[in-house]
Amino acid sequence: MPAPLDLDLLKTFVAVVETGSFSNAAPRIGRSQSAVSMQIQRLEQAVGKQLLIRGQKSVVPNAPGMDFLVHARRLLKLSDEAWASVTRPEETGCVRLGVPDDYAAFLLPPVLASFGTEYPLVTVELVCEPSTALSKAIDEGRIDLAIVTRLPGQPVEILRRERFVWVASSSHVAWEKAPLPIALFEPGCAARMNVLKALAGSERAYRCIYSSASLLGLIAIVQAGLAIAGLALCSVPPSLQIIGEKEGLPALEELEISILRNPASRIVAVDRLFEFLDHALSSGP
Known about the structure:
Layout (H helix, E strand, L loop, with lengths): L6 H13 L2 H8 L3 H15 L4 E3 L4 E3 L1 H25 L5 E7 L1 H6 L2 H10 L3 E7 L2 H9 L5 E5 L10 E3 L1 E6 L10 E6 L4 H11 L5 E7 L2 H9 L4 E5 L7 E4 L11 E7 L6 H16 L2
Parallel strand pairs: 3-4, 3-5, 8-9, 8-10
Antiparallel strand pairs: 1-2, 5-12, 6-12, 7-10, 7-11
């Protein structure tokens, strides 16, 4: 009968795979680099085969390692859930979290990943809509929490300021066209208001050739060289370039990010996610 797998060894294995090296994994699990290397050796000896390919600059899983990674993550998740069910049984339930499309795609994933590790029994249900719609959803009690871009005059606490920049295709010069072709998020979106306000204060003629709530759709239009757009810096993909004053474009104001809470949502899980988001956003880069 095979010996049971050591969860500490599994944690080390997952940390090495996710960070790409023994040295990067060491501070994550609170051990020295040599201790990480020894634990990986113990794990490979226990399963009877090599799981990692050790390169000069990085460490990656081989085919058996990729298969093993799936099971390792599952076992660690079950362990966390078992522990939480006994030590923190009140921290369960479903939280309905609203977030704009661009924040959901780029700003939120690392935050939710960390929250899921700390509170494995809490389910987060995402609702992706523009900030104006999310504010209304909070008022109507349809969601528990919402990350929003503060609208002009909205009386909410600002937790984070995010640079808002012009973006264009890396292989086209759409900004040289006249009138200037722009792609916008749908009416009511704070990012759309920001772009139109900047253009209204400039002498540059423009025309909107695309309007949608879809971030992916907007990025596709810009990548094709059909228009430029304004995006939060955190949501700019590598395929686009940041442009600005030297291309003759007006300055864009920063986006002000806040968290709204439904006062009727009183379960502990909502408290924990609110606290987690508040800390993550206010202390983020």
